[in-house]
C-alpha cells in the first residue's frame, strides 16, 4: 500500500490538473508521484445495422497534438465537469462530434484511462438506432472528419495499426464480450 504524505497542484488548465504527491511506500521508502487529474469522459461505440445485416461503425479522425498525427477513434470526450450523468455525456459527445443522435444507448461499463499516471473514468456506451443530425464541434475539433467503416474494415484498421487509440480498442473488446453474453 502507498500512503500520501502531502500533495500540491503544479499545473492547471481548463482540461487538466497535475499534482505532485510525496508518498510513502509499504517498505517505508519515500518518493514522488505525479498524477494527472481529469474529469470523467466517455467513448461511444456507434453501431449501425443495415437491413441486410451488415454492420457499420462510426468513427472520427482528427489530429492528435501529443503524438503529432491524424488518427481514427470512436467518438469520445468530456465536458470538463466533475459531476456528469454518463449517458447525457455520451449522447452529447456523439452528437457534438458526428451529428448522430442515438435512439438507444447502453452503458457497457467504464475503464480508467492510463491509470498509471491519470485518474480519469471513461464510460463506454453502445449507441444504436442512429439518426443523422447536425454536429456541434468544439474549436479543438475543427479538423475532425467523420468516418463510417464496416466492422471488417474497422477490425482490419485495429489490426494493421491504422487505429492506434487504446481506448477505442478497449471499448471494442468490451462491446464484443458484452455482445457474446447477450445470446
From TrEMBL:
Pfam families: NUDIX. Gene3D superfamilies: Nucleoside Triphosphate Pyrophosphohydrolase. Its cofactor is Mg(2+). Belongs to the Nudix hydrolase family. NudK subfamily. GO terms for biological process: nucleoside phosphate metabolic process; ribose phosphate metabolic process. Keywords: Hydrolase. It comes from Terriglobus saanensis (strain ATCC BAA-1853 / DSM 23119 / SP1PR4). Residues 37-180 form the Nudix hydrolase domain. InterPro entries: NUDIX_hydrolase-like_dom_sf (IPR015797), NUDIX_hydrolase_dom (IPR000086). This is GDP-mannose pyrophosphatase. One of its GO terms (molecular function) is hydrolase activity. The keyword Hydrolase applies.
